[in-house]
Amino acid sequence: MHRRRFICASGAASVGAMAGCLGGNDGDDETIHIGSLHALAPPVTEIAETEQEAVTAVIDRINDDGGIDGRPVEVQFGSTDYDAATAAQEATRLVESEGVDVLYGGFGSPDVHAVADYVRNRDDIPYLVPAGFASLSREDCHRSTFTLDGDESMASRLVLPEIQGRSGTSGWLHIIDHDWGSQIEDHFTNVLEEEYDDLEIIETTRTAPAAGDFSTAITEMMNADPDWCYFGGGGIDFIEFVNQGQQNDLQEAVDLYAPHLEIQDLAGAGSNAEGIVGGIPYSPTVDTELNQEFIETFQMEGDGLPNSISHTARNALYLYKEAVESAGTTEYESVIEALETSEIETPMGSLHIRECDHRAMSDLHVGEAVVTDQFEIPIPEPFGSEDGESLADSCEDVGCEL
Question: What is the DSSP letter of 126?
């Protein structure tokens, strides 16, 4: 019988039985250890807790189904505190003290890039990144790092045809002034200028993250009378912009678009978000057996509906499972090679890694926020999809050298 040991992740919030203290088996070389990093600090604490719940629930499901290649799986959590230095420290602890086989997680630019720098310097452990940070599959790419989502050029190519087909030619760009907002602005502007001669941006306005007051930008927009607005941000910024826009009749005058329609953002904006069109990274309305299984799995650990962060966590774990089972080992070089050719089915369609830049290519969906009798909150409802390969910049253009 193996002696149980429990590892408490520093800074971790308590989410379910495994979120604060996590079990391992002394001397059990058969166990596969997942190092899962989450930004358990404001302003994204609630999202990180939901992501942790998803990781716990999915690993429980994988173990119930026989583990990975017949081996049990355990997770060890760490909190990045949405901070670069803390993220690097926690990644170091999980790898060098706890001996995890793979790293997953991080939320924003500071913590994700800190972990990516750490694994780049080691070059001996895979890192699965939960979001589409553009540079990590471009100039900052590395063979250890795999991004699990499309970048903002892909989101732009998904949404711009809808703008062209539904709205007039003149647009407004409002950006939340942080790293992600800058990515949205750069990619959207580049794609529009290069591929859509009939569309123009009248003006670009910016507000600081969580500034809370969009009155100046909304007034300027209403005075300029554009046909549409593309909003580059999420979370509380999206919620406040949509709600303040409705108070000023913005939605009556301007068609609103977003790169991503997130369940938690739509819930915060309520019925004011109805009719907004954008990319849909995850929707509970997709009627597949795998999606129903995912919702049931998530709800065994968490409350409410899973969101896109939960969906990405699920996909990362199953992608790693596929790679280890294909390689027949958790050995670094073998797993990296297997990840480069792995393909899985997800609740939203197929997903595979593009070998040239280690970016996940999946079916990408576009749709709108709708209010239905089935759910108490507006839900992102897909009405179209595209193969990610058709939306991505070519391997020659991304500037990645692995």
Answer: -
Residue in 264, 260, 216, 265 with CA at minimum distance from that of residue 239: 265
The tens digit of pLDDT for each residue in 317-358 reads 999 999 999 999 999 999 999 999 999 999 999 999 999 999
Q: Which residues contact 188 (CB under 8 A, 6 or more apart)?
A: 152, 155, 156, 160, 173, 230, 232, 259
DSSP 258-311: ES---HHHHHHHGGGGTT-EEEES--TT---HHHHHHHHHHHTTSSS---HHHH
Neighbours of 54 (CB within 10 A): 26
* Structural class in CATH, domain 152-280+364-395: alpha beta
Which residues, other chains included, contact 313 with Cβ-Cβ below 8 Å and sequence gap of 6+? 36, 51, 54, 55, 58, 104, 105, 130
Q: How far apart are the C-alpha atoms of 89 and 85, rounded to whole Å?
A: 6
Residue 296, judged by CB atoms within 10 A of its CB (0-12, 13-18, 19+), counts as: exposed
Q: Same topology for domains 4-149+287-357 and 152-280+364-395, yes or no?
A: yes
pLDDT digits (tens, 9 = 90+) for 129-155: 997 677 899 999 999 999 998 889 999
Amino acid at 344: I
Q: What CA–CA distance (Å, rounded) separates 233 from 239?
A: 10
Q: What is the DSSP letter of 3?
A: P
What is the b/e burial string over 308-330, where b = at least 16 CB atoms within 10 angstroms of the residue's CB?
bbbbbbbbbbbbbbbbbbbbeeb
Is the CB of residue 102 less than 8 Å from the CB of residue 35? yes
| DSSP element (H, E) containing 321 | helix 308-327
Q: Do the Cβ atoms of 319 and 363 come closer than 8 Å?
A: no
* Contact (CB, 8 A) for 201 and 232: no
CB 176 within 8 A of CB 158: no
Q: Which fold has domain 4-149+287-357?
A: Rossmann fold (3.40.50)
Return the exposure string of 115-148: e unless at least 16 CB atoms fall within 10 Å of the residue's CB, then b: bbbbbbeeeebbbbbbbbbbbbbbebbbbbbbbb
For the entire predicted model, the pTM comes to 0.89
Pairing mode, if any, of strands 170-176 and 73-79? unpaired
Where along the chain do its domains lie?
A: 4-149+287-357, 152-280+364-395
- Residue corresponding to tokens 């995850």: 282
